[in-house]
Amino acid sequence: MAYVYVLRSLKSGKRYVGHTSKDVYERVRQHQSGTNAWTRQNRPVELVYYEEIGDIREARERERFLKSGQGRKFLDKIIPR
Questions:
Q1: In which domain, by residue range, is 68 found?
Q2: CA 49 to each of CA 24, 75: distance values in angstroms, whole numbers, following the listed order
Q3: Cα–Cα dist 57/53, whole Å
Q4: pLDDT tens, position by position, 2-50
Q5: With contact defined as beta carbons under 8 Å apart, do 67 and 15 qualify?
Q6: Mapping DSSP to helix (H, G, I), strand (E, B) and coil, where does residue 49 land?
Q7: pTM recorded for the entire structure
Q8: Which residues pair with 20 in a beta bridge?
Q9: Given the DSSP bridges, would you call strands 15-20 and 45-53 parallel, antiparallel or unpaired?
Q10: What is the CATH number of the domain that holds 72?
Q11: CA-angle at 2, arms to 40 and 24, nearest 5°
């Protein structure tokens, strides 16, 4: 099982899209602790969206889509600012 997730910076309002094969909440805790350069500079962050995906390959593909123009439009519709 894998996940695609979206974090929002409470500091800047920007979004971060990532994927993981770990528990999504554990991954968010890692982001909060500063293990990632982007979230270290933009924390605190909140989990605003995630999807459970069949495997890590599919999760990478979904992450790539969510970072595309169409994917950003999709996220803008489902995640209120």
A1: 2-78
A2: 10, 9
A3: 9
A4: 999 999 999 999 999 999 999 999 999 999 998 889 989 999 999 999 9
A5: no
A6: strand
A7: 0.93
A8: 3
A9: unpaired
A10: 3.40.1440
A11: 40
